[in-house]
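G., the chain you wanted modeled:
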Amino acid sequence: MKQFVVKRAIRAVDSDHILGYELLFEKGGEDLYGENSNSAADTIASFLMNNSDKIFREKQIFLTFTPSLLLRNTPKIFQKDKVVIQIGDNLIVHPLAMPIIEKYHKEGYRFAINDFQFSPKYFSLLEYADFIRLRMKKDLSSKEKVSMENVINMTHGFKKKCIITDADTREEYEQALALKADYIEGNYVAETLSVKAEKVDYLQGNFFQLVVAVSRDEPDISEIEEIISRDAGLSYSILKLVNSAYFALRRRTASIQQAIMTMGISQLRQWIYMLSLNNEGSEGSDEILRLSFLRAKFAEELIQNTGMKFITPSEAYMMGMFSTLEYMVDASMEEIIGEIPIDTVIKNALIRREGDAGKLLDLVICYEKADWKQCQNLAKELDVPTSLLSQIYINCVEEVSSIWDSLTGEYTRPGEDSMFKPRETSGEKIEDVLQ
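Predicted structure as tokens:
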């Protein structure tokens, strides 16, 4: 079985707060959550054991567990406050459903019910659930809308939180907002995490690392270049500035290193200090910056690991990094890219998804959106082995998460528990589950 895995953000409807991430295996779990799921459970359990420290660092993870995974104590890989066990229909109809759920509930684990319905088998689980999840349909009838409204009202009546999933288009997202759920998940969420503004957003931790780097008596140019290159906002701003009439370059540049050398340390310091006077951030804008960084790394690694030659790794990195600029600058992608001298191949990929570079960017974004079918089609067109996609993505998530931890200042203080703990050797058997 081809293994694909991706995270999708779950966002509060009234702010940019990110509740957590749902972890998706295959498209919507369709191939992995059937009743006869022992082989699928082996795949998922193996992935979680080998990658828990790579992909689940920052916030709580929402994950649909098969009965087999629960009977194997797989949730115990996680700290209790860092995982939400999603209850799917295959668990609800399982003969051991209630003993399994009661067992984990007593141990302090939290639950979310997928695709809640007005039926006794769902109501019997309400006391254990913290979240109710409802799937947004593409063409929502008036009857279905009323039904969703009733479920949401009931959810709030029971003091639970409601998450609407699969809000993949603008219309579906706006319908989800109108239904007054608490959180929304879907492909369109990433595109609304940051409201467009007249200024570019910067990652605060990254920005202040840059302030420190340029303030040294003998600044390290390679360090400054590295810090700027991992932030889409800073990269765009310095390239826009150095190619402006102020510097009147004979030849425009798309190189961060060349931009730094052109400005010189003195002017670079002034530019950075000026930016520091007006640097406001939010969790949503940080999420966009994080997304741009991950896209950049993913695109770069795909070029480096597959032998594709139509663009260089650095061009792939820049393409991924700049692919989110429309959500950070109040202008169209065509207007934004027109201000910096990016190669025509990259411009056409960013604006119109043209050529092989456009297919590469589409592959990165389709993977991000868990559109596995289109991922396979694009991978085939680009001659990218699909077996590489998941591991390259996971490695990129690990690297981005590691850098992100250092940028945001999050660290485990003495005496604090880490997000994950080593899996305990347990002799627990089925009879223990039933106790």
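Residues 5-192 form a domain with the TIM Barrel fold (CATH 3.20.20.450).

Shout if anything looks off.
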